[in-house]
Design brief:
By secondary structure, the chain is of the alpha+beta class. About 55% of the residues lie in helices and about 15% in strands.
Length: about 450
């Protein structure tokens, strides 16, 4: 019965507009509207470049600039609305309001379209922005044309019963619009809270990330519950659905849930945080960001690894800056037996101190570790505070400093000694043995 009533009311409204369209003043107004729209299009070609030059002067206010650009892209519609307003007032001054009804409807529709188009530009996702813009304009058009109640009754008549719940097209549309709007507002609020927390110096980096994630997720869940409750949907009816989703998460999304829970554990125990230098299964780099599912690690060669959170729980992780940024490095070297080991230690320490990244507060040490086959073996130990800047490069600079210092002080780094024994037969009459001690590089010699 409701469906038939909605159809009858819609046909009556359409019949009234058909009768109005047959009058001469409808044609006059339609011609005026078309002329004004064409004039607005032509005027916008000249006005928009001039306004754009002024808009480029806005600096340091990205939000305001985004709104201004959105208005500039709708210059033709702004001019069209202004022309319609002037034409409406002019015609009402010389004729009755009944002969300007179409102009009034066109003015209200253009204002609604302009408002929806500019407001949707705030949303960065273009698909969502266009969808919301069209839906907002359609709703405004139904209200302006006076058929909002008829359309609502028609959509409400398209319903199916689901147990104790009556699910209609009107309820689905309202739920979708409210859900999208509420979630969008929750995301905006969550991002704002996250940004404010990130710049707070009173909280540790891990707590900042944890508070930001909890705020985003919590606001989205609350927004969804509020939106569904606002349309009259009983949330207890979703218990069966939520149970099915829980089973699906348990079986089909084990890794996703595991990584999410691992991420929360990482944030709570503060084992890693943004800026830490870590090593994991051959990957050495610094942590750029902690996400809900993975950790972004940037290596020295510029590559960015997205490592699942679960690996930081189950694998062996080396955090070079867990308690502090001080890292000790070792450099092994050897010198000739002719050198004085006491002097070698002093020169090695002095050479390491002169390297820029080596910490002067933690004085390097150099120890004699053994008497090798061809050299006195030493280990030089020094400290740095910036492991994220690389380890191989600082070791290389220290080795070059050792080379320059030893060369300037007449200390040589010997080649390894090899003792070669050659055995062979001469004419089958006997064996000749020869023994030679030579100082050769570490290579093989074919005999």
């Amino acid at each position: 019965m409701d469906f038939r009533d909605a159809i009858d009311r819609s046909l009556a409204w359409a019949g009234g507009w058909f009768d109005y369209a047959a009058t001469p003043w409808f044609v006059y107004q339609a011609a005026i509207i078309a002329s004004l729209f064409l004039g607005a299009k032509l005027a916008a070609l000249r006005v928009e470049p001039l306004m754009e030059n002024q808009a480029r002067q806005i600096k340091g206010q990205p939000g305001l600039l985004r709104i201004v650009i959105a208005l500039l892209r709708r210059t033709d519609w702004i001019l069209f609305t202004m022309f319609l307003f002037a034409a409406l007032n002019l015609l009402r001054a010389i004729t009755s309001p009944s002969r300007t009804h179409l102009l009034l409807v066109a003015l209200l529709l253009s204002l609604a379209w302009l408002f929806a188009a500019v407001l949707s530009r705030i949303i960065r996702n273009r698909l969502v922005a266009r969808t919301l813009g069209w839906l907002a304009w359609i709703y405004a058009a139904l209200v302006i044309l006076g058929i909002g109640d008829e359309a609502a009754a028609f959509l409400d008549s398209l319903a199916i019963p689901l147990g104790t719940v009556r699910l209609s097209a009107l309820m689905v549309l309202k739920a979708a619009l409210l859900l999208i709007a509420a979630v969008w507002l929750a995301v905006v609020a969550g991002n704002y809270i996250d940004e404010r927390v990130r710049i707070s110096e009173e909280l540790t980096p891990s707590i900042r990330v944890l508070v930001g994630k909890v705020a985003k997720i919590g606001l989205v869940l609350v927004a969804g519950a509020v939106a569904l409750s606002a349309v009259g949907l009983d949330l207890t009816a979703l218990t069966v659905f939520s149970g099915a989703v829980g089973v699906g998460l348990a079986f089909g999304l084990q890794k996703v849930v595991s990584n999410f829970v691992s991420g929360v554990i990482i944030l709570l125990d503060k084992s890693i945080k943004p800026g830490d230098t870590i090593s994991l299964e051959g990957t050495f780099g610094w942590i750029r960001e902690l996400r809900a599912r993975f950790v972004s690690v940037v290596t020295r060669d510029g590559r960015e690894f997205l490592i699942p959170n679960e690996d930081f729980i189950t694998q062996r992780v080396i955090n070079w800056s867990f308690s502090d940024n001080l890292v000790r490095l070792d450099v092994n070297f050897g010198v000739s037996y002719d050198a004085d080991p006491h002097k070698v230690s002093e020169l090695a320490i002095e050479a390491a101190i002169n390297v820029g990244r080596v910490e002067a507060d933690r004085r390097p040490v150099c120890w004699l570790t053994g008497f090798g086959d061809s050299s006195l073996n030493f280990v030089l130990r020094f400290w740095i505070r910036d492991p994220q800047q690389g380890l191989t490069n600082v070791r290389g600079k220290v080795l070059l400093a050792l080379w320059d210092t030893f060369k300037a002080n007449g200390i040589s780094i010997p080649y390894p000694h090899r003792e070669i024994i050659m055995r062979g037969n001469v004419g089958g009459s006997g064996e000749r043995w020869a023994r030679a001690d030579q100082e050769l590089p570490d290579t093989k010699k074919a005999i």
